[in-house]
Amino acid sequence: MSARRASVSVREVSVRYPGAAGEAGPAVEGVSFAVEAGEFVAIVGPSGCGKSTLLKAIAGLVPLAAGEVTLSGGAETRVGFVFQSDALLPWRTASGNIEVALRLSGERATAAKGRARALLERVGLGEASEKFPGQLSGGMRKRVALARALAYDPAVFLMDESFTALDAQTRIQVGNFFLEILAQSGQTVLFVTHDIEEAVTLADRVLVMSRGPGRIVRTIEVGLARPRDYYASRFASGFKERQQAVWDALGYSHGGGAAGGSGGVRGCVMRGWA
Question: If we measure between CA atoms, which residue out of 209, 208, 242, 249 comes closest to residue 225?
């Protein structure tokens, strides 16, 4: 794994999308935050608040209406983006999809083939290395996409609902694999999720966004010790308090949810709250 590390600076970033009448409406408005090299930051917020848009803006995939994004390593900084969809090449096998990333990062064909197979073994897909994406389940394709991003050896990971398609057992397995890789190489991570438990389990800090146009309304320090376990960390001292703090920042309270929803810690354990 590469020893390269990079910080991310987001300053007064706004993104606008064309509306039905052709007028540009704000999707993200005046967002500022910084991510230190090697830090894991999760972003949560209501559906449609601009979380994914913000991530794409940081990656340079959508234009900024205002503000700037700076990576400490400059234009040479490798950024790995794991989309909500797997975005695999349908005409390449699972191994072939990973080999593409390895060849782009400079590995020779023989070495790329061997490393691609090793990465697939690590995410539990060794037996599927020669299958095409159309022959894999949604969860399996997501694991191939994660392995492909890891193969590129980025200094910064941008991840958009990256574990959503996985069943509970596989989610734990892949989550722990990802935490293990980060512990070894210390990449910087920005991770968008709807799952409050997942955000607190993984992150050093959680950024909470408002309803659209999205703004950062609160930053919550997690402060749980590392190394972490994707499942066992949920029973650590202080976990529920951090989880509740995120829930409260989203506009909920112990007494009941906003707009008639169920509130409290029990509510934020549930997925699909947005």
Answer: 242
3-state DSSP: the chain helix, strand, coil percent, rounded to 5? 40, 25, 40
Domain of residue 193: give its range.
8-78+153-269
Token reading at 250 = 């989203």
Q: Domain with 60 in it: what CATH number?
A: 3.40.50.300
Residue type present at position 72:
S
Left if phi > 0, otherwise alpha if psi is -120 to 50, otherwise beta: which for 166?
beta
User: Which tens digit of pLDDT belongs to each residue from 196-218?
Assistant: 999 999 999 999 999 888 999 99
In a domain, 145, yes or no: no
Q: Is residue 210 domain-resident?
A: yes
Residue 200 belongs to a domain: yes
CB-based contact 175:143 (threshold 8 Å): no
Q: Is the pLDDT of residue 22 over 70?
A: no
Distance CA 36, CA 6 (A): 7
| End-to-end alpha carbon distance in the chain | 36
Q: Number of structural domains, the chain?
A: 1
Residue 274 within any structural domain of the chain: no
Is residue 226 pLDDT above 70, yes or no? yes
pTM score of the predicted model: 0.82
Running DSSP on this structure, what letter comes out for residue 161? S
